[in-house]
């Protein structure tokens, strides 16, 4: 998902790994149809703050890292991705073509920009069942990452109140550095646009098992059409559930 980026990331690998560099160039070419900026220029630039830039850049880096790992003998037995990380995971598994992956990440992040400045997200170190008692209709459970790791999204004022309440109760809560509310009701405002923009996406059955963080279950990636990628942005990220499913099925890191 978003948040792992830093200025200067991937530059050393561009110089030291021909496999990484070649795959990144393919990602850059795939993105060209959908963006008005250069992937390599952005990676070498001073900032990664724009929503509609950072998500495609992260996608390209994730896809290229997976290709480099494969070249070094690290091949996935199963694949899982967190929130927008599922777009890269779908490409790595073979459920989306590189071009379709570029379409989803570039056009969806552009559509998201209309929500900028109207929301936010907060990470809370508390079990989701207890955390739900703190929420009102202005907030949603955005992601369940583990037994005591949950992300909430919603209106900025409501999130301020949540942080204050957590601090009073000795519960760790910190803002995620974004100004929009993914995985909340706010996303419903762009549903029709996303379904239209992503209608050309042609998912296919992957050659590698794919565990969805939309459902928390193994799925046939042929269902990952425009509607799926809307739900991936709107619904709670069921990362803990997906991780437990993979562990129960015998997969290990």
From TrEMBL:
Keyword Secreted: no
A Pfam family this chain is assigned to: Acyl_transf_1
Domain of life of the native organism: Bacteria
Gene Ontology biological-process annotations: fatty acid biosynthetic process
Keyword terms, alphabetized: Acyltransferase, Transferase
Record InterPro entries: Ac_transferase_dom_sf, Acyl_transferase_dom, Acyl_Trfase/lysoPLipase, Malonyl_transacylase_ACP-bd, PKS_NRPS_Biosynth_Enz
Gene3D superfamilies: Malonyl-CoA ACP transacylase, ACP-binding, Malonyl-Coenzyme A Acyl Carrier Protein, domain 2
GO molecular function: fatty acid synthase activity
Residue intervals of the Malonyl-CoA:ACP transacylase (MAT) domain: 1-253
Protein name stated in the entry: Acyltransferase domain-containing protein
Taxonomic placement: Bacteria, Bacillati, Actinomycetota, Actinomycetes, Pseudonocardiales
């Amino acid at each position: 998902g978003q948040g792992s980026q830093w200025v200067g990331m991937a530059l050393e690998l561009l110089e030291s790994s021909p496999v990484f560099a070649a795959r990144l160039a393919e990602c850059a070419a795939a993105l060209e149809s959908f963006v008005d900026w250069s992937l390599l220029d952005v990676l070498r630039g001073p900032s990664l703050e724009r929503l509609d830039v950072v998500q495609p850049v992260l996608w390209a880096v994730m896809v290229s890292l997976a290709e480099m790992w494969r070249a070094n003998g690290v091949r996935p037995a199963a694949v899982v991705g967190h929130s927008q990380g599922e777009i890269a995971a779908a490409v790595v598994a073979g459920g989306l073509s590189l071009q379709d992956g570029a379409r989803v990440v570039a056009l969806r992040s552009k559509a998201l920009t209309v929500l900028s400045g109207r929301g936010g997200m907060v990470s809370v170190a508390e079990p989701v069942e207890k955390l739900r008692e703190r929420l009102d209709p202005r907030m949603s459970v955005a992601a369940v990452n583990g037994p005591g790791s949950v992300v909430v999204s919603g209106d900025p004022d409501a999130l301020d109140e949540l942080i204050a309440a957590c601090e009073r109760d000795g519960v760790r809560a910190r803002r995620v550095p974004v100004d929009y509310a993914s995985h909340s009701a706010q996303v419903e405002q762009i549903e029709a646009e996303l379904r239209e923009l992503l209608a050309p996406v042609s998912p296919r059955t992957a050659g590698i098992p794919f565990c969805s963080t939309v459902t928390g279950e193994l799925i046939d990636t042929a269902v990952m059409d425009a509607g799926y990628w809307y739900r991936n942005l709107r619904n709670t990220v069921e990362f803990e559930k997906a991780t437990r499913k993979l562990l129960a099925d015998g997969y290990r890191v």
